[in-house]
Amino acid sequence: MNIYIGNLPYSITEDELRDKFTEFGQVDRANIIKDKFSGRSKGFGFVEMPNDGEAQSAIDSLNDTDFNGRSIKVNQARPREERPPRRDNY
Prior knowledge:
32% strand, 90 residues, five-stranded antiparallel beta sheet, alpha+beta, globular
């Protein structure tokens, strides 16, 4: 299951995020989304867990809890919506 984590502290590393979710089971991947120009965290990320039961347990336990001073939002990630192509205004 792919899990969305929002309102992350900007200082959190992918290893710290992985460790937080490993308490509930196996984590295949942890990814913090970063700004492509500055390289700074955008304050959200994703964790992939192969076992849906463990993933749901993590979602239920961690949603609206404090993580390094911020109340994180945790839920199952939805598929990315298709957006119309961007138009250049030149």
